[in-house]
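Record type: ASSEMBLY
Status: queued
Input:
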Amino acid sequence: MTGLRITGWGSALPDNIVTNADLASRIDTSDDWITERTGIKERRIGGTTAEHAINAGRAALDKAGVTPDQIDLIILATTTPDRQVPATASTVQQGLGLSCGAFDLNAACSGFVYGLVGALGFLKSGLDRVLVVGSETLSTIVDWEDRNTCILFADGAGAAVVERTEDDGDLLGFSMSSDGNLEYALFAERGGTLEMDGRAVFKNAVLVMEKAAHEAMEMAGVTPDDIDHVIPHQANIRIIEASCKRLGIPSDKAITVLDYTGNTSSASVPLAMVDALEAGRIHKDEMVLMVGFGAGMTSAATVLRWSADT
Ligand code: UT7
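Status: finished
Output:
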């Protein structure tokens, strides 16, 4: 069997911190409301999608101990490419000094998990190493007068180097889906800003996260009791807690960073992954469930048995 092993990871956040109090000084909202309804306390704003991806990608290459010529492909998950054409992945490739294939992937907040599954396919096709990055500058497509959305979204990136293994590797099961009937719930027209039916997204998010997680666990041959850590999309603490409850996984197994990152879409799962790894929370041989959902509405999950030394 050919598999995938995560051997390096890194993340990047802009320096500029925008607190709930900063937002409350400009629009009709409050720290209490945002904290209670979302779990977000502050978020990082600024920079470009390519800059964050390059910084996160460089850290991941360093951690994996690989040189630029050893990377065969970049998959950049983003909903906020810096330009319409070319793919932001090409800017990242140049910035990291790589010479390999590069493309953008838009599966909204499920993007990084889609990217990992895609990387497994490329490794099975013969590539040795893929750099999977989730990077966003959602601040560029947010209407800063719209309290329905601007309190949620933010900027940043997370990245992973994944390598081919000749055994089953880390990724034991996955699920990917999309339901275009729900496109209306979260979208941005070309050149426009994000529009969202928050309640519709909330309701469906809990359902699709549960479904995706069950499908990935079934493929991996594991049950919720086997899961040591959940790395969920960082949208809303109430969505994370409700999903854990429905899955029968204690919510203290969920890794959360949204209190200081906000919702960074494709970057949110890898940002949480890197935070947990750097905090020494994930250990070798532990079972990790990644699960995301987002505009589309997409959802995706992976079950990984973590094999890298942390
Ligand atoms: O990556 C996926 C991205 N999207 C999401 O994950 C969104 C999922 N949905 C959510 O997270 C929640 O629906 C929100 C956080 C967006 C909203 O929370 P909610 O508990 O669903 O609030 P609501 O929309 O039902 O609004 C409750 C009240 C309303 O006032 P009335 O009608 O009860 O008088 C809103 O006008 O809260 C009001 N409200 C606010 N108040 C203060 C809405 N936004 C704000 C705000 N500050 N920022």
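Annotation: The pocket of oxa(dethia)-CoA is lined by residues 29, 33, 37-38, 109, 147-148, 151, 186, 196, 198-199, 201-202, 205, 235-236, 263, 294 (CB under 6 Å).
Annotation: Residues 138 and 154 are 5 Å apart (CA to CA).
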